[in-house]
Task: structure prediction
Amino acid sequence: MPPLDVGASLKIAGAGVSLTRSVASWLAKVGPSRRQSSLLGSLFGVELANSHSYRVGMLHPTASVGNTHPDDRIALGSLAGPALRQSLERQWREEDFVPVNFEENLVLIGSAGPEGLSRLIFGYRNNGKFLEYVGTPLDLPYHWVEDEREVRSECLRYQSGGAVTTRPNWGVRSLKGAAGATRFPELDRQHFLASDLLLVSRIPNFLSVTRSGSTLISVGGTHGVGTRAVSLVTKDRDVVSQILETLRESGTDYFQALLSAEKIHHHEGSGSVATTVRLLDVVPLHFTDLQLEKAFDSAASAYTGWVSETSTRANQKPFSTSPNRIIRPWFGYGPFEGPE
Result:
């Protein structure tokens, strides 16, 4: 597997900030919250001094091809906002394609359904009918259930503007112990989401050929309500403290955490939005060099098929030959809580 450039939605580096035109079209309408949380760097390692590339899922079934879901946009703002605010003095480069190398720090927003690179990292394959889990290259305790054959029911939620969508009630499976158990979001009597699940992963970037020491951060809900709830996590000192205390005792920065997004408000105008989060489990992770090498080899063997699969939905795009256009920053005009 070559260190091939893939596309990002947003890239923050020492040289400045680059973002795709499609992302710029909706980021121009909203800005990140002015509140800068020190919890963000402690939990996710998204320190202001480090460069990170952010990918937002563009394969979402309820969004048009090549576009992002509004819930994922909120999640992006909560994770990238502090670094964006520090970068206001730099130039912003708007491009058709923002190249990202596998050697870099990557932040992936969305589960394996909408976020294409997560399929390669977490071991999913589209068999033409559903997204099949074939095994994570790196041994992890949790994974999303994206196979409709394993889903017990459907769930409802509001999108902004009053539309109600019906989706399979996806779950999260635990591989801890001898037998795996699957947890599903809770539903109310009308089958609207009463809670949603959020799976957060921070692991070594095993896609790196040179063992660059870079990190992979993944934030993905069983539905958009859960993904969006990462904005609540970065503000919840109690939840973050619980996770950090467990990591300190285990002597690692790597983990998977499963959270429940709760007290969901369903509103025809603003959509379905969780107002609180609760930590269900956190598993500290330790990896050997041999494990990382095996994970790299596993991803390399699946790489060609992954490129073929994701390129059909505009996830992979050729480099643009058009000249870059320099734009001035628009951030700082209000909270990153725009319409869904």
